[in-house]
Amino acid sequence: MPQVTVVHTDEVTPRRNPATGLIVVPLFGDRTGFGERLEQAVLELGPGERSETIAVDGADEVLFVISGEGSIQIGAAAHPIEPETGIVLPRATRFALQCAGPAPLRLVAVRVAVRADDPEPAPDSGPAVSRLSDQDMEPATGAREFRILADPAAGLRTATHFVGYIPVGRAPDHFHYYDEVIHVLDGEGVMHAGALERPLSAGSSIQLPAQVVHCLENTGDAPMRVVAVFRPAGSPAAAFYPDGTPAFQGT
Question: Is residue 184 part of a domain?
Answer without folding.
Answer: yes
